[in-house]
C-alpha cells in the first residue's frame, strides 16, 4: 500500500505545478521575491515605503456553488476570475490596491490539466487587478470530494495609505450614488439559481433569444473586476466618499455597509439596465422583487458615492476603465438604510 493507492497522486501534483507555472508567471510584479514553488510567497514592501501610513487591507472568499455549473459544463477557465474578483473588489472598495493573491483548490482527484485550467482563470483575474499570484495550494482529498469535483477559494492582500481609506464617514445628504454595471449574476445566490433552473448540460446549453446566448453562458459569465475603475477615479482626482460591492445580500444588506449613521441611500430601480438573466430567474422561480434585490446585484456590481460636482469626472474615469456607469441615486438624511423606489 502507498499514497497513490490511497487516492493521492503526488506525481500528478508535480505535473499540475509545472503546467500552471506559465500562468502564474504572467501575474508577477516587481515586488515579488523568489520563484514559484517555495513554501511561502515573499513580497517586498519597498513599493509603498513612501506612504505616510501604509495600511494593509485583505479579503478572502470562494466561488461558492457556482462551481456546480463548471462541473456540469466541464468549463473551468473562468471560475478563477470569480474567485479573484470576490476578494480584490472588496479590497478596492476600501480604497486599497491589491498586491498579491493566493489560491486554494481542494479536489477529489488531481487531474493536472484541469487544475492548470482553473489556475489560468485565477491568473486572468490577477492580471485584471494587477495583483501577483504568489502562491497557492492544491489539496487532493479522495473520499472527501467526488473525483470530478473541487472547491476553489482565495485570499488577497492590498495596501492603502491610511488617509485614503474609504470609510463612508464623510458621506452626506446630497451626495450622488453611481453604479457600475455587473456582468450578470456574478458569484452569489447560486443555491437559489440551481433550485430554479434544471441543472443538466442539455438545459444549460439551450439557447434563449432573450439572453442572446445559452443559459449556461449567461450564468457562468465571470464576475467583473472593478479595481481598474476605482484606480482611474482616484487618478482623476475624485474623492470616493463611500463604496459598496454588491455581493450576497444584494442591495439591502450591502448598501447600508457604506453608510454612516444618520444617512440613508435612495436608489432608483429604473436608473439602470437589469440584465435579462435576472428577469428570467424571477419569472421562472416566481421570486418576489424584494427577494431579488435582497439576493442579487440586479445589474449593479459596485456603487460609489461622490460629491455632485465630481459626478461627470468620476463617470468618465469609469468609462475609461471599460465600465458602464449609471447615476442610480443619492444620499439623504434619515435612518441608516436603503430605499429602493
Q: What does this protein structure show overall?
A:
It is built from twelve helices and 14 strands. It has 341 residues and is an alpha+beta fold. The strands form four sheets. Strands 10-12-7-13-11-14 form a six-stranded mixed sheet. Helix 8 (227-235) packs across helix 12 (311-320).
Brief description of this entry?
With 341 residues, the protein is α+β, with helices and mostly antiparallel strands. The chain is built from twelve helices and 14 strands.
Low-confidence stretches: none
Radius of gyration of CA atoms, rounded to a whole number:
21 Å
Oligomer: single chain
Number of strands: 14
SSE pattern: HEEEHHEHEEEHHEEHHEHEHHEHEE
What form results from the Cα inertia axes?
Answer: globular
Largest sheet: 6 strands, mixed
Structural class: alpha+beta
Q: Could you report the average pLDDT, rounded to the nearest whole number?
A: 93
- The total of helices stands at 12
Spatial strand sequence of the major β-sheet: 10-12-7-13-11-14
| Percent strand | 15-25%
How far is the N terminus from the C terminus?
66 Å
Helix content: 25-40%
Amino acid at each position: 500500500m502507498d499514497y497513490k493507492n490511497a487516492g493521492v497522486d503526488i506525481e500528478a501534483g508535480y505535473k499540475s505545478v509545472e503546467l500552471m507555472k506559465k500562468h502564474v508567471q504572467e501575474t508577477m510584479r516587481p515586488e515579488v521575491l523568489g520563484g514559484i514553488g517555495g513554501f511561502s510567497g515573499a513580497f517586498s514592501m519597498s513599493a509603498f515605503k513612501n506612504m505616510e501610513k501604509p495600511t494593509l487591507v485583505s479579503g478572502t472568499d470562494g466561488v461558492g456553488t457556482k462551481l456546480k455549473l463548471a462541473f456540469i459544463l466541464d468549463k473551468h477557465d473562468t471560475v478563477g476570475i470569480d474567485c479573484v474578483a470576490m476578494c480584490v473588489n472588496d479590497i478596492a472598495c476600501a480604497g486599497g490596491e491589491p498586491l498579491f493573491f493566493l489560491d486554494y483548490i481542494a479536489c477529489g482527484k488531481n487531474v493536472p490539466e484541469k487544475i492548470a485550467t482553473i489556475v489560468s482563470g485565477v491568473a486572468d483575474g490577477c492580471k485584471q487587478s494587477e495583483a501577483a499570484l504568489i502562491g497557492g495550494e492544491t489539496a487532493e482529498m479522495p473520499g472527501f470530494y467526488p473525483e470530478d469535483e473541487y472547491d476553489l477559494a482565495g485570499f488577497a492582500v492590498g495596501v492603502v495609505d491610511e488617509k485614503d481609506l474609504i470609510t463612508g464617514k464623510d458621506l452626506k445628504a446630497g451626495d450622488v450614488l453611481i453604479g457600475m454595471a455587473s456582468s450578470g449574476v456574478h458569484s452569489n445566490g447560486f443555491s437559489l439559481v440551481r433550485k430554479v433552473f434544471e441543472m443538466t448540460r442539455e438545459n444549460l446549453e439551450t439557447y434563449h433569444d432573450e439572453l442572446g446566448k445559452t443559459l449556461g453562458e449567461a450564468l457562468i459569465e465571470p464576475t467583473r473586476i472593478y479595481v481598474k475603475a476605482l484606480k482611474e477615479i482616484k487618478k482623476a482626482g475624485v474623492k470616493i466618499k463611500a463604496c459598496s460591492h454588491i455581493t450576497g445580500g444584494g442591495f439591502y444588506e450591502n448598501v447600508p455597509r457604506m453608510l454612516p449613521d444618520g444617512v440613508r441611500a435612495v436608489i432608483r430601480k429604473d436608473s439602470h439596465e437589469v440584465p435579462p438573466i435576472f428577469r428570467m430567474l424571477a419569472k421562472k422561480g416566481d421570486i418576489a422583487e424584494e427577494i431579488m434585490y435582497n439576493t442579487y446585484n440586479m445589474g449593479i456590481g459596485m456603487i460609489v458615492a461622490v460629491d455632485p460636482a465630481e459626478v461627470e469626472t468620476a463617470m468618465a474615469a469609469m468609462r475609461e476603465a471599460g465600465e458602464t456607469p449609471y447615476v442610480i441615486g443619492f444620499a439623504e438624511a434619515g435612518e441608516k438604510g436603503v430605499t429602493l423606489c
